[in-house]
Structures are given as structure tokens and as C-alpha cells.
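Hi Y.,

Following your request, here is the sequence exactly as I used it, all 153 residues.
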Amino acid sequence: MKKRQKRLLLVVGGLAGVVMVTGLVLNAFRDNLVFFHTPSDIVAEIVPMERTFRIGGLVEDGSVARGDDGITVHFRVTDTAVAVPVVYQGILPNLFREGQGVVAVGSLQDGGVFKASQVMARHDEEYMPPEAAEAIKRAQREAARTVGHPEGY
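Below is the corresponding structure, written out as C-alpha cells. Let me know if you'd prefer a different format.
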């Protein structure tokens, strides 16, 4: 083999290695990417059922119910426009309560129930995830616009 052929083989092999590593990194990134959605997004059906994602908003007042086993909790997350039922098995954070901000990680099940694998509550009086705060403001604006114009103006 000539020197030029060896160099070409080395360059092609290096490029193939870089392409393969880039593909593996992008595939791992895609599998670990978790999007944030609001209850309004779920009701609008823009959320894929099989993917893991985050849902955020407020725990709806009067919606928390504990199961007979002591670890299953049912509650509803709302963005003040719509609410989505959530079921979680595990120990809830100490700050979890009705009317407080919450972010849950999980997936959407049949019947529109969100099955959470992790629940996070806000940690002080001032904190709410920016996405959840914006979703609540957007839902309030939409509700105000709808109430102001009953014909759907």
C-alpha cells in the first residue's frame, strides 16, 4: 500500500469514528431529554403518551386523596385553566400540599392520567419553576379573554 492510500484510509477511518461517536452521543441525549408541559398542553393532546416528561402547576385544592396502602397518592395538577389527574406511589416531599407549586416527572397513561415517578415541591414562598409560572399566567390570560368575549371573539 502506498503512503497516500494509508493516509486516505486513516482519514476515512477517523471520520467514521467521529460520526459513530456523534451518533451515540446524540442518541443518548435524545433518550434522556425530558420536556416540560402544562395541563393545558396535555388536554390539547400535544404530549406523546409513551415519552417521559414533566408536568407543572399548582396542586388543586381539595384534590389530594391517599390510597389504602399508605403510599399511593392521587391529586390533580392545574394551571388554573384545566387540571390533570396524577397518581404517585412513594413518599411525597414535606412541602407538598394543596395550592402549592409542584413539578412531577412521569408519563401519560390511558384515560389521561399522569403516572408520576417523581414529585418535586417548591422549596420556599418565592420559588416556582419559570415554565410553570408562565403557563399559569398564560392560562389566566386565555381564561380572561374567553370570559370577556363569550362568543369566542
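The chain has two domains: 1-33, 34-148.

Thanks again,
Q.
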